[in-house]
Each structure stands twice: as C-alpha cells, then as structure tokens.
Write a structure and sequence with these properties.
- This protein has about 575 residues and is α+β, with helices and mostly antiparallel strands.
- Helix content is about 50%, strand content about 20%.
- The protein has 15 helices and 18 strands.
- The strands form 4 sheets. The chain has a 6-stranded antiparallel β-sheet with strand order 8-7-6-11-10-9.
- α2 runs antiparallel to α3 and α11 packs across α12.
- The protein is flat.
- About 25% of the residues are buried.
- It comes from Blautia hominis.
- This is HAMP domain-containing protein.
- Keywords: ATP-binding, Cell membrane, Kinase, Membrane, Nucleotide-binding, Phosphoprotein, Transferase, Transmembrane, Transmembrane helix, Two-component regulatory system.
- It is found in: Cell membrane.
C-alpha cells in the first residue's frame, strides 16, 4: 500500500495556529463585509430607485400639462370661429393667418413645453395656417421651415389616422404632438402640430446622463438624449426586457418605471454601473483593507514566535535522532531551549544517548537473522468513492480560490461519477434525476464547445416524475453533439419530453443530414439482433440504449433515429410508463 504522506510538525503547528486565529478573524471580516454590502447596497438601490421614480413623475406631470395646454385650442373654439368667419365673409387668406398666429402667440409663445407650434386648416394647409416659436424653449424660425420642408407630409398622413385623441410622431429626433381640430359636426377642420421641448419635458430624467445610460420610450418612440440636451432617435435599451423596479444583471443595476396615462405610455429604463452604486461603500472597504494590512505583521510575529520557541527546538531533537540513527551514539544536543518542556526533552535525549553508547560499548553485537517474508504487491486500484471524495476536495479548493468555472465543472463531473457508481443499485430513476445527469454532462460540453453549442429544453411538467432507465439519455445527447454540433462546427441540440397514453417519449434533435451510408449504419446499430461485441466502443452508445429499452419494456419501446426536417435529425426514445411498468 502506498504510504500516506506525512507533514512536518512545523507546518502542522503553523496550520493550527493560523486556523485557530486567522479563520475566525477572516470569518468575522467576511460577515462584516456581507452585512455592510447587503444593507448599504439595499439602501443605495432604494434611494436610486426613488430618485428615478421621482424624476419620472416630474416628466409625467409636464407631459400631462402639455397635453392639457393643447386641448385649449379645441375647447375654446377660437380657431374654429376664425375659420367659420373666414368662410362666411370671404376674408383674405392673410386675415385668417394673422388671426391664427395671434391666437397661437397668446397661448403658446411662452409655454416651455413647446419650442414651436403650427396650426393649419385642411382646406389649404400651405395657405391657411399660422405658426409661432418659443425662443426661450429653444425654438427658432428654422424649426418652422424644417417642418414645412421635411415633416408636413408625414404629419398630414399621420393626422388622417387620428380621431379626436392625441398622437406623437417622430421625425429624425423631432417629436411632434398632434391633434385634430373638429367642427360642431365632429368633422376634422384643421390640425394642431406642436413640437415638444423634450429638454424641458424630460429635464428630470436628463440629470442621469452624466453617469448612466438611459432609454425613454414615449409610446413606441425611442427617445435618447445627448449631453447638450438635444434629443436623438436611436435604438437604445429595451425596457420591456426588464421587470418593473430594480434588477441586477451583468454588473449593472437596471431601474425601470412604466407609467400609463389616457393619452400615452411612458416607459423608462436607467442602467447604472455597479461601481457607481457601491461608491459610497468604498470607505468601508478601505477600513477593512487597513484591517487586513495590519493583520500581516501580526501573522509574521506569530510565525516568528512559533519558530523560535517550538520549531527550532523540534529541529534540534530531530537532528539528534538522525545522528543516532546513523550510528553516532552518545550525540549531545547543545541548543538552549526557551521553554521548560523542551529543556526537559533535551536533557532526557542527552541522557538516553549516553546510556545507549554505554550499552553498545559493553554488549556484544548479536547477529539477527531475519526470516524471508514474501511481500505481496497489492495492485493499486483507485476506488471510485475515493475519486468522488477527491473531486469534492478539489471543488472546495476551487471555491476558496474563487474559480467558480472550475468548481461548476467539477460539480458536473461529480454528478456523472455519482450516477456511474450507482450506490443505491437502482435500475430506474425519476426523469427529473436523469435530467440532472444530462445537465451535468451538457455543462461540461458547453465549457468545451463554448458558443458553438446551444441547448434548448422543452420538458413537460407531467413527465418529471416518470421512471426511466438510469443513464439512458446521456449516450443519445452525446451522439447528437458529436455527429451534429461538432461535425457542423456549431449547432443547436433540442431536448424534449412528452406523454401519449401509456408511453413516455424523450427526443433529441440536432443539426445534420443523414446520407444513405449513415442511414444504413443507424439501421444496423438499432437492429433487434445486433451483436454489440462486434462493434467498436465509439458506436456502442446508441446500440446499448436501444437494447436496454427493448429488454426492459419490450416492443415497441426502443430508440429510433430519423430525419425530422431538411436539416434536423431526431432521436426518439420510447419508454412504457403504464401500470405494467410501475
């Protein structure tokens, strides 16, 4: 048997000293870090979420006020009366335009929600219209020209789709709020077009721009802002991909707020780096860092004391023992020990050495005959239980070093080894347990193949407790990966389960096209009278699976492989789960 490795007392003493002192200290520091991070992080996230919600509410209130202001043009009836007077008295076009411009100037020139406002009558939009702009809200005459040159036709077509409600239209980052003006018979007469001052309406949300990414969706319009406050239309973050409130993902905190009003829906997503969230906690981390740094000289002092008073006297005793072992009888230790225990041991050793020398000087050496003894060499086989326990130790070491990738792979390999050892001697297991072995195998294969391998699961809930033969799925999955994904360079493997009557069906689907030669090989391997002893080990998997199912359940149970689609191959396991199978 292989002799178990023994460690010196030096390392044992150091391990005991550090374990009894450093481990409690590290655990205490770890608990402090956990407490600080969990509480401070939670408060920080709550504060940021509240700030986002507050600024979002400000934007909602300003949008609501803008919509309310736009209703005045319909409810007050001034623009409708001007048009009726124009039609009844045959006034000139410039008279109508002047009256419209005067009304708009009174109502909207100083309204911070709009940078420009245009109203035109459907009869002749290019002639019968009026427009104003609000310079304090960023408006200018070129906005009027831009509207008539680039945006009017799109606005006119969009207005045709509106009834009496409010609509929003995006034209290369220019957001227009549009509503129809109707007469007393509810027939459209004109269209009110108001260019939103997004810098004002979303002023609260723009405060996040300095540090965070942000996506704002007004109905289906994606609003993004540059640092100077101008609005751009780009495809940004999609709020619908995240739940309401705060969510952690990939080192970022995502805060989503969705508000639904009668006239619009406002959906906002703010992405905050984790470093920003933890910024206020760095002071605590620095304190802990100082504590750890101060721990180093204490550890050095501990090692010095252990070596001076324990290890060096022990080494002197070991040196004396080696001298006597080599025949230097009467060897004396001259080291001055610093403790009573080692003084006693040193004096006792010196006396013993002197007595041995005296005895060997006065006693004849006797020949000692040793009987021949056969030493039977034991074949060293590694016990699977020992391998599994060793994997657990390696897994623990990987977790301690923070290498979760290796730890996960070891856990997956351990699951497969446990399945292979079959401690409980079970021939069948629930499907949900069999899927654990499959997931362990797939995890290892994903680490090997990376993004080349994609796995999709479609497992029926009612099948999870059905009994299946142990390790019946892994060879089929392996075959799908080897002959589908690896051969093609990349691909997707689909695993599904479902029941029909007294039968459970387990299917794997992978990329690939079977030619005639491969079809013949599959038929040969799955033949009822196929002799597996004549096959190479690389092809035993699916043949073994088919024969196991046939032996356990009889016809029509077994494995079938066929071309599902033009580029997909399906392997189907049929398992009887009726009363006779139970």
């Amino acid at each position: 048997m292989k002799e178990k490795k023994k460690f010196s007392i030096q390392w044992r003493v150091i391990a005991i000293a550090l374990g009894c002192w450093m481990i409690p200290f590290v655990l205490m520091v770890g608990m402090m870090v956990h407490y600080i991070l969990s509480n401070q992080m939670g408060d920080r996230v709550d504060n940021m979420t509240d700030q986002v919600n507050f600024n979002m509410q400000t934007s909602v209130e300003r949008l609501n006020q803008a919509i309310e202001d736009s209703r005045d043009a319909s409810y007050e009836g001034e623009l409708r009366s001007v048009y009726e007077a124009y039609k009844s008295n045959d006034y000139k076009d410039y008279w109508l335009s002047g009256r419209v411009r005067g009304y708009l100037n009174t109502k909207y020139t100083n309204d911070p929600s709009f940078s420009s406002t245009i109203f035109w009558y459907r009869e002749a939009p290019e002639k019968l219209n009026g427009e104003v702009y609000n310079s304090s809200a960023g408006g200018a005459y070129h906005q009027i020209n831009t509207y008539w040159e680039y945006d009017h036709e799109a606005v006119r077509e969009y207005a045709e789709t509106l009834d009496t409600g409010i609509g929003f239209l995006d034209r290369d980052g220019r957001i227009y709020m549009i509503r129809n003006l109707v007469n007393r018979s509810f027939e459209p007469v004109g269209v009110l077009v108001m260019r939103l001052n997004t810098a004002y309406c979303f002023e609260g949300m723009r405060h996040f721009l300095n540090d965070f990414d942000m996506g704002i969706y007004l109905n289906d319009l994606c609003l993004e802002f540059t640092q100077d406050g101008e609005q751009e239309n780009k495809e940004g973050m999609r709020p619908e991909e995240y739940p309401q409130g705060s969510t952690w993902e990939g080192g970022y905190l995502y805060i989503r707020n969705l508000v639904k009003e009668n006239s619009y829906r406002l959906d906002t997503l703010v992405r905050i780096p984790k470093t920003v969230v933890m910024d206020s906690m760095y002071a605590y981390m620095r304190i802990l860092g100082v504590m750890i740094v101060l721990l180093v000289p204490l550890v050095v002092f501990l090692i010095f004391m252990v070596r001076r008073h324990i290890l060096q006297p022990t080494e002197q005793l070991m040196e004396g023992a080696r001298e006597i072992q080599e025949g230097n009888l009467g060897y004396q230790i001259t080291f001055e020990a610093g403790s009573q225990e080692f003084v006693y041991l040193t004096e006792s050793f010196n006396q013993m050495s002197s007595r041995l020398k005296y005895q060997f000087d006065h006693i004849f050496q006797e020949e000692m005959a040793l009987k021949d003894a056969r030493i039977m060499a034991l074949q060293s086989h590694i016990n699977p239980h020992f391998m599994n326990n060793t994997l657990e130790i390696i897994n623990w070491e990987a977790r301690l070093s923070g290498n979760m990738k290796i730890s996960k792979m070891i856990e997956s390999l351990s699951v497969l080894m446990n399945a292979a050892m079959d401690r409980k001697r079970r021939h069948v297991v629930p499907l949900k347990e069999e899927l654990q072995y499959v997931e362990a195998y797939l995890h290892i294969m994903k680490e090997r193949l990376g993004s080349k391998l994609t796995v999709e699961m479609d497992i029926s809930e009612e099948t999870l407790n059905e009994k299946v033969p142990r390790l019946i799925l892994q060879p089929v999955i392996e075959n799908a990966i080897e002959h589908g994904v690896i051969r093609s360079g990349s691909g997707t493997v689909v695993l599904r389960s479902y029941k029909k009557g007294d039968y459970l069906y387990l299917e794997t689907e992978n990329n690939g096209i079977m030619n005639e030669q491969e079809r013949a090989k599959v038929d040969r391997l799955l033949a009822p009278d196929y002799d597996t002893s004549k096959e190479s080990s690389g092809n035993l998997g699916i043949a073994n699976v088919n024969q196991r199912l046939g032996i356990l359940y009889g016809e029509p149970c077994g494995l079938s492989i066929f071309q599902e689609k033009d580029d997909r191959i399906c392997a189907r396991l049929t398992i009887f789960v009726g009363l006779r199978a139970q």
